[in-house]
Amino acid sequence: MVLFEPDPGTLRPHRTTGPSADRVPADRAAGTPEPLRADLVRLLGPHKVLHTLSDLVKYASDASPYRFVPQVVVLAESTEDVAAVLRYAREHQREIVFRAAGTSLNGQAQGDDILVDVRRHWDGVQVLGDGAQARIRPGTTVGRTNITLSRHGRLLGPDPASSSACTVGGVVANNASGMTAGVTRNSYRLLSSLTVVLPSGTVVDTAAPDADTALRRAEPELYEGLLALKTEIEDDTALVARIRAKYELKNTNGYRLDAFLDGTTPVEILRGLMVGSQGTLGFIAETVFDTVSLDRRTHTALLFFPDLAAAAAAVPLFNDAGARAVELMDGNTLRACASVDGVPADWADLPRETAALLVEFRAPDDAGHTAARQAAAAVVEKLTLVAPVPSVTNRFVEDPATVHTYWHAREAFMTAVGKARPDGTTLITEDFAVPPSRLAEACRALAELQERHGYEAAVAGHAAHGNLHFLLALDAARPEDVERYAAFMDEFCAMVVQRFDGSLKAEHATGRNMTPFLESEWGPRATELMWRIKQIVDPHGVLAPGVVLNRDPEAHLRGLKTIPVTESAADPCIECGFCEPVCPSRDLTTTPRQRIVLLREMTRQPDGSAAMEGLLGSYGYDAVDTCAGDSTCAIACPVGIDTGAMMKGFRHRRHSRREERNAARVARHFGLVESSARAALGVADQVGDRIMGNVTSALRRAVSPELMPEWIPGIPSPAQTRLPVTERPFAAAVYYVACVNRIFAGPDGEPGPSLPEAVVAVSHRAGRPVWVPPDMAGSCCATIWHSKGYDDGNTLMANRIVERAWEWTDGGRLPLVVDASSCTLGIGHEVRPYLTPENLRRHEQLTVVDSVVWAAGLLPYLEVTAPLDSAVLHPTCSMRHLGDVEELRAVAEFIARDVEVPVHAECCGFAGDRGLLHKELTEAATRHEADEVTSRPFDAHLSANRTCEIGMEHVTGRPYRSVLLALERATRPTV
Fold first, then answer.
1. CA–CA separation, 912 vs 122, rounded Å?
2. Averaged confidence pLDDT in the chain
3. DSSP class per residue in 70-106
């Protein structure tokens, strides 16, 4: 037993209501039952089978309004694993659901038996033909795929709003499209081939020359069944006409019956059927996409109209002119978005009848761009536009910042409704499509329906394609709310089908919430064919039963999740999963969404239940200890939840008063801590890594792994005790050497100046000299205490650094340049809540400048004399918060011919010293980035935060150093 073991009970959530009816029952507390767990461990190995209650609960929720707790979670690593699990399920009459990003909105990726995670080990993009095609593994996010393709001037056609989080496999399985894909640039049209694992375990590569021969040999009944259905459909001319008409609109409801019309062989039919099959016909193990042109030149406007009819009338004009995107927002949507940061506040005063179109033209070159500008101007001349509030300009722009603001406003609807919805409600996102010519009529009909059922009336969508979106807030714990939702859905579906002959699901796919209404849209003949498709491809019903086809008329009302009120910081969470790709612990323990999901389940439980105690026992390590606290989740979150800050709060909650006092004592005597740390590093240089590793491991076991760092090879030598001597009178800035750079030297074995010497030298060289205060010892940005939740020490140090900075900068007259990005963030922003009123006033007058921003400002006054051939960058999470990643790139591109930022560059998880407390966090966080970095040689490995550089060196074996060291070396005058 360790000396300082945190008490799990301090993390027990505070419940405001009684236990929830949909809580995990007590008999599930042990996790996966036997013999299921033992069978799968024997089949796959223990590291591929997640079986604790915490494992199961964190996979039970996704972006949909549904919640199903699986019996077991399998981490499949290969098609062989998937095939083995499928055969097991068939032999034991079990069911399987595949899950990648968990961003599906209708419950497609949820099940209560075997859930197979196909994200973690399924990442990768291979560019083919200089970008004309791409081979993509299904767990790769669309965003990262597009980063890779953009280097070749290409993109994927589908562009869903969740591109940063959703995976390519999920996009294909749902035929998700987005703002610009329409019916011509979606997966069905652009998917060249795929590799699929059928429910039987048979693997089919549709691009293989002998694919049909192999399929006929392996699956004769499936082969003949698809051909028979093709003949039957083609012989029914009325059905053929109906199928073609249905897919003139965006439509993802049911199976793609046009696959039988477009495919000539069973393999071609199968390729088409897999698109939009929602994991019910097989596992998409690999895709090959035809890509589309990036078209970097944009011409964008946010145009305001007196009413919906006027806005809708403009849509076909822009479509005919070649606009790539035409997005609609009605007046209520615009007014709701005014509460979101970055959206003009005066939108709250817009008349309710106002409507707006976000229009964007894109072109690959100057000629196309000129033509687009002319086409846009010609359309605008025909329009009657209004400017009801001062922020409205009705102008086409090309400035990236303004364009970003427009798109941010378009996407702010979910943020506004998500934040404003009542506590305890889940957010339901619906979409449908109507003929574009009836857009305004559909908007009005929907608004009337929403108001009649007591919902907020607001609509937005992809107007170019007649595709509309709306949001509903539902409290599934209240029967009257569920009844209201049921009545609304009955009327809504009848309206879309009977009044508009539209698509009940335009791009979100059928899922659990639309299965009862599938036949109302397609009719009995087509629906019966879909049932036969399922029987032919999955005769044993292994894959995702009830997700596309379901005979239960109330299937959409079963499994609706409650959202218990818990921590105020977590209550706005809509469980969308946008946070997960940026989370350092995503492949180690939990993600921000999962931390909140687990917290909500504990809140559902009665006091003392076995499930509660089991979840509480694992929450400390899984959620609190292995959170990097980097808060990049808050950047990705559409409702701005900072789960990292919440976990820091939980760390504080676990501290005793004695621990708080000790932490404050360390802050008070931090000068001694600095010198002691340098002395310890000096000793380590003498005794070596092995002995230091043994000593720290023993201390961690005796004291606490949360308090005692673990020695890792590559920890640098101590920094020089003396800092550069500088002059204050002519200084352009005060240079604050962060404590991490006062303790740690640069990479071992590298000759040249220290970082402080380099910053002083390059600043002087550029004619912008800096002054280094002689009394920095004992000061710190306070992040050491802030990250661990030690409020007393944090308060003490936060006020100390502001008081000293006030003196050093002559009351804010000079800027304060900080040479570690996390310290810049700490001094510039994170100290504020802990300051006294007087120090808060002082802080408001300080100008805190990150070193990479300072360096970027020096570039016009410097000359490169020794350029690098190549450099790879690690932008830190603090740089993302500060918004200075582009400055890092600018400095690197100034000194190196070839600069690369890895596709997977995210927070390294080192997080000050958290990578020393839990080195497994950094190793998991950087696994993909390290693979990219080590795949080729680079002349330099650059960042601007010493602990992050130590972490990256640990995982890559490459010497990372500050970009300012490289800048100084590259610009030294020649003799």
1. 30
2. 94
3. -SEEEE--SHHHHHHHHHHHHHTT--EEEESS---SS
CA–CA separation, 334 vs 458, rounded Å? 9
pLDDT by residue (tens digit) across 232-278?
999 999 999 999 999 999 999 999 999 999 999 999 999 999 999 99
Residue 65 contacts residue 426 (beta carbons within 8 Å): yes
Q: Is the pLDDT of residue 588 over 80?
A: yes
Confidence of residue 707 (pLDDT cuts 50, 70, 90): low
Q: Which residues contact 518 (CB under 8 A, 6 or more apart)?
A: 253, 254, 504, 510, 527, 530, 548, 549
Q: In what order do the strands lie in the sheet with 325-330?
A: 396-397, 297-305, 355-363, 325-330, 460-462, 467-474, 426-433
Task: Tell me, rounded to whole angstroms, the distance of Cα 146 from its chain centroid.
Answer: 14
User: Residue 387: CA atoms inside 13 Å, Cβ hemisphere, count?
Assistant: 6
Torsion of CA 904, 905, 911, 915, to 10 degrees: 60
CA–CA gap between residue 743 and residue 732 (Å, rounded): 26
Per DSSP, the three-state class of 330 is strand
Q: CA 389: distance to chain centroid?
A: 34
User: 700 phi and psi, to 5 degrees?
Assistant: -65, -40
Interatomic CA distance for residues 504 and 498, integer angstroms: 11
Assess contact for 786 and 648: CB atoms under 8 A: yes
Other beta carbons within 10 Å of 627? 32
Residue tagged 């569920």 (tokens): 482
Which residue in 689, 739, 679 sits closest to 913, CA to CA? Answer: 739
Distance CA 121, CA 139 (A): 7
Tokens encoding 699: 């201390």
868 vs 866: CA distance, rounded Å: 7
CB 884 within 8 A of CB 759: no
Which of 353, 343, 326 minimizes the C-alpha distance to 392?
A: 343
| Helix, strand, or coil (residue 465) | helix
Determine if the pTM surpasses 0.85. yes
Rounded CA separation 943/873 (Å): 6
d(CA 727, CA 674) in angstroms, rounded, equals: 25
Closest CA to 848 of 812, 811, 887: 812
With a CB cutoff of 8 Å and minimum separation 6, the contacts of 383 are 303, 305, 310, 314, 317
The strand pairing partners of 117, in sequence order, are 75, 99
The label of the residue with tokens 């989370």 reads: 583
Asked if residue 288 lies in contact with residue 357, where contact means CB atoms within 8 angstroms, the answer is: no
